Prior knowledge:
mainly alpha
Amino acid sequence: xxxxxxxxxxxxxFYLFDLIRRHVLDWRKRVHIIEDFGMAKLFRKDExxxxxxxxxxxxxxxxxxxxxxxxxxxxxxVYSFGVVLLQIISGxxxxxxxxxxxxxxxxxxxxxxxLEGQGMEFIDPSLDDxxxxxxxxxxxxxxxxxxQENPVDRPSMLEVSSMLKNEMExxxxxxxxxxxxxxxxxxxxxxxxxxxxxxxxxxFTQMAPR
Length: 210
Protein backbone atom coordinates (compact mmCIF):
# COMPACT_ATOMS: atom_id res chain seq x y z
CA UNK A 1 0.00 0.00 0.00
CA UNK A 2 1.27 3.47 -0.93
CA UNK A 3 0.73 6.25 1.59
CA UNK A 4 1.12 9.88 0.46
CA UNK A 5 1.64 12.92 2.60
CA UNK A 6 -1.17 15.46 2.86
CA UNK A 7 -1.23 17.72 -0.21
CA UNK A 8 -2.98 20.99 0.73
CA UNK A 9 -3.43 22.18 -2.87
CA UNK A 10 -5.09 18.95 -3.99
CA UNK A 11 -4.35 17.61 -7.48
CA UNK A 12 -3.86 19.49 -10.73
CA UNK A 13 -7.31 18.22 -11.66
CA PHE A 14 -8.62 21.25 -9.76
CA TYR A 15 -6.56 23.76 -11.75
CA LEU A 16 -5.97 22.37 -15.25
CA PHE A 17 -7.97 20.69 -18.00
CA ASP A 18 -7.33 17.75 -20.31
CA LEU A 19 -4.08 16.52 -18.74
CA ILE A 20 -3.74 13.35 -16.69
CA ARG A 21 -4.04 15.78 -13.84
CA ARG A 22 -5.45 13.50 -11.17
CA HIS A 23 -2.06 11.76 -11.14
CA VAL A 24 -0.18 14.92 -10.20
CA LEU A 25 -0.48 16.10 -6.59
CA ASP A 26 0.26 19.71 -5.74
CA TRP A 27 2.17 20.72 -2.62
CA ARG A 28 1.82 24.15 -0.95
CA LYS A 29 4.91 25.60 -2.68
CA ARG A 30 3.82 24.32 -6.08
CA VAL A 31 6.01 21.25 -5.83
CA HIS A 32 4.32 18.49 -7.83
CA ILE A 33 4.38 14.79 -7.09
CA ILE A 34 3.44 12.27 -9.79
CA GLU A 35 1.61 9.43 -8.10
CA ASP A 36 0.56 6.99 -10.84
CA PHE A 37 2.56 3.80 -11.37
CA GLY A 38 0.20 1.90 -13.66
CA MET A 39 2.60 1.54 -16.61
CA ALA A 40 5.44 0.34 -14.37
CA LYS A 41 3.52 -2.88 -13.77
CA LEU A 42 3.94 -3.81 -17.44
CA PHE A 43 7.65 -4.53 -17.00
CA ARG A 44 9.54 -7.26 -15.23
CA LYS A 45 12.80 -6.07 -13.74
CA ASP A 46 14.91 -7.70 -16.46
CA GLU A 47 12.90 -6.31 -19.41
CA UNK A 48 13.92 -3.35 -21.59
CA UNK A 49 10.65 -3.09 -23.48
CA UNK A 50 7.21 -4.66 -23.36
CA UNK A 51 4.39 -5.84 -25.59
CA UNK A 52 1.03 -5.67 -23.90
CA UNK A 53 -2.26 -7.40 -24.62
CA UNK A 54 -4.33 -4.60 -23.12
CA UNK A 55 -3.94 -0.94 -24.06
CA UNK A 56 -3.30 1.21 -21.00
CA UNK A 57 -3.07 4.97 -20.91
CA UNK A 58 -5.12 8.05 -21.76
CA UNK A 59 -6.49 8.61 -25.25
CA UNK A 60 -4.63 11.38 -27.02
CA UNK A 61 -1.32 10.69 -25.30
CA UNK A 62 -0.73 7.17 -26.61
CA UNK A 63 1.70 6.77 -29.56
CA UNK A 64 0.70 4.85 -32.70
CA UNK A 65 3.00 1.87 -32.18
CA UNK A 66 1.31 1.20 -28.85
CA UNK A 67 -2.20 1.60 -30.24
CA UNK A 68 -1.54 -0.65 -33.26
CA UNK A 69 0.91 -3.22 -31.95
CA UNK A 70 0.86 -2.94 -28.18
CA UNK A 71 4.55 -2.03 -28.23
CA UNK A 72 5.75 0.01 -25.28
CA UNK A 73 9.20 1.60 -24.98
CA UNK A 74 10.85 4.76 -23.69
CA UNK A 75 9.71 6.52 -26.88
CA UNK A 76 6.16 6.26 -25.46
CA UNK A 77 7.14 8.85 -22.86
CA VAL A 78 8.65 11.10 -25.53
CA TYR A 79 5.42 11.09 -27.52
CA SER A 80 3.31 11.86 -24.45
CA PHE A 81 5.66 14.68 -23.47
CA GLY A 82 5.33 16.20 -26.93
CA VAL A 83 1.53 16.25 -26.65
CA VAL A 84 1.68 17.88 -23.21
CA LEU A 85 4.20 20.47 -24.43
CA LEU A 86 1.90 21.41 -27.31
CA GLN A 87 -0.92 21.91 -24.85
CA ILE A 88 1.21 24.02 -22.52
CA ILE A 89 2.41 26.47 -25.18
CA SER A 90 -0.97 26.77 -26.88
CA GLY A 91 -3.47 26.51 -24.04
CA UNK A 92 -5.54 24.27 -26.31
CA UNK A 93 -7.34 21.06 -25.49
CA UNK A 94 -6.12 17.76 -26.84
CA UNK A 95 -9.69 16.56 -27.33
CA UNK A 96 -10.82 19.40 -29.63
CA UNK A 97 -10.38 19.95 -33.38
CA UNK A 98 -8.90 22.98 -35.09
CA UNK A 99 -8.25 24.58 -38.47
CA UNK A 100 -10.49 26.14 -41.09
CA UNK A 101 -12.73 23.09 -41.26
CA UNK A 102 -12.23 22.11 -37.62
CA UNK A 103 -10.97 18.68 -38.67
CA UNK A 104 -7.37 18.82 -37.44
CA UNK A 105 -6.10 17.42 -34.17
CA UNK A 106 -3.90 19.63 -32.04
CA UNK A 107 -0.87 17.79 -33.49
CA UNK A 108 -1.85 18.39 -37.12
CA UNK A 109 -2.93 21.96 -36.46
CA UNK A 110 0.42 22.77 -34.85
CA UNK A 111 2.30 21.14 -37.72
CA UNK A 112 0.33 22.94 -40.44
CA UNK A 113 0.94 26.34 -38.84
CA UNK A 114 4.62 25.54 -38.32
CA LEU A 115 4.94 24.36 -41.93
CA GLU A 116 3.40 27.61 -43.18
CA GLY A 117 5.71 29.71 -41.03
CA GLN A 118 2.81 30.82 -38.84
CA GLY A 119 3.78 29.02 -35.66
CA MET A 120 3.10 32.06 -33.49
CA GLU A 121 -0.61 31.72 -34.30
CA PHE A 122 -0.52 28.43 -32.41
CA ILE A 123 1.13 29.94 -29.34
CA ASP A 124 -1.01 31.20 -26.47
CA PRO A 125 -0.86 35.02 -26.80
CA SER A 126 -0.57 35.38 -23.03
CA LEU A 127 2.87 33.73 -23.07
CA ASP A 128 6.00 35.86 -23.37
CA ASP A 129 9.44 34.39 -24.05
CA UNK A 130 11.31 37.69 -24.40
CA UNK A 131 13.21 37.12 -21.14
CA UNK A 132 13.60 33.36 -21.52
CA UNK A 133 16.34 31.43 -23.29
CA UNK A 134 13.78 28.77 -24.23
CA UNK A 135 11.84 30.30 -27.12
CA UNK A 136 8.25 29.30 -27.78
CA UNK A 137 8.74 28.54 -31.49
CA UNK A 138 11.65 26.33 -30.53
CA UNK A 139 9.41 24.55 -28.02
CA UNK A 140 6.88 24.05 -30.81
CA UNK A 141 9.47 22.45 -33.08
CA UNK A 142 10.75 20.20 -30.29
CA UNK A 143 7.19 19.13 -29.45
CA UNK A 144 6.53 18.24 -33.10
CA UNK A 145 9.68 16.10 -33.15
CA UNK A 146 8.37 14.24 -30.10
CA UNK A 147 5.07 13.28 -31.77
CA GLN A 148 6.50 11.75 -34.95
CA GLU A 149 4.73 8.74 -36.43
CA ASN A 150 7.83 6.54 -36.38
CA PRO A 151 9.45 6.13 -32.93
CA VAL A 152 12.87 6.10 -34.60
CA ASP A 153 12.30 9.72 -35.64
CA ARG A 154 11.57 10.88 -32.10
CA PRO A 155 14.42 12.24 -30.00
CA SER A 156 15.33 10.76 -26.65
CA MET A 157 14.34 12.69 -23.54
CA LEU A 158 18.01 13.57 -23.08
CA GLU A 159 18.01 15.13 -26.56
CA VAL A 160 14.75 16.92 -25.80
CA SER A 161 16.30 18.41 -22.67
CA SER A 162 19.37 19.52 -24.63
CA MET A 163 17.25 21.14 -27.33
CA LEU A 164 15.15 23.03 -24.82
CA LYS A 165 18.31 24.24 -23.08
CA ASN A 166 19.85 25.40 -26.39
CA GLU A 167 22.68 22.90 -26.00
CA MET A 168 22.33 21.66 -29.59
CA GLU A 169 23.53 23.71 -32.54
CA UNK A 170 20.70 22.67 -34.86
CA UNK A 171 17.29 21.08 -34.41
CA UNK A 172 16.15 18.84 -37.24
CA UNK A 173 12.90 19.45 -39.08
CA UNK A 174 9.86 17.45 -37.95
CA UNK A 175 7.84 15.26 -40.27
CA UNK A 176 4.05 15.10 -40.29
CA UNK A 177 2.86 13.97 -36.83
CA UNK A 178 1.27 10.69 -35.87
CA UNK A 179 -2.38 9.92 -36.67
CA UNK A 180 -2.42 12.49 -39.46
CA UNK A 181 -5.42 12.49 -41.81
CA UNK A 182 -3.40 14.00 -44.66
CA UNK A 183 -1.48 12.01 -47.23
CA UNK A 184 2.28 11.88 -47.55
CA UNK A 185 3.96 15.07 -48.65
CA UNK A 186 7.49 15.83 -49.73
CA UNK A 187 10.08 18.11 -48.23
CA UNK A 188 12.07 20.28 -50.58
CA UNK A 189 14.84 17.70 -50.46
CA UNK A 190 12.38 15.03 -51.61
CA UNK A 191 12.12 13.17 -48.33
CA UNK A 192 8.73 11.99 -47.18
CA UNK A 193 6.85 14.04 -44.63
CA UNK A 194 5.30 10.90 -43.23
CA UNK A 195 6.40 7.31 -43.03
CA UNK A 196 4.18 4.37 -42.21
CA UNK A 197 5.14 2.72 -38.98
CA UNK A 198 6.73 -0.68 -39.30
CA UNK A 199 7.41 -3.03 -36.44
CA UNK A 200 10.73 -3.90 -38.07
CA UNK A 201 12.17 -0.41 -37.74
CA UNK A 202 10.87 0.34 -34.25
CA UNK A 203 13.54 1.51 -31.87
CA PHE A 204 13.51 0.72 -28.18
CA THR A 205 15.60 2.89 -25.92
CA GLN A 206 17.55 1.25 -23.14
CA MET A 207 15.80 1.46 -19.78
CA ALA A 208 18.05 3.90 -17.94
CA PRO A 209 17.59 7.00 -15.77
CA ARG A 210 16.93 10.17 -17.77
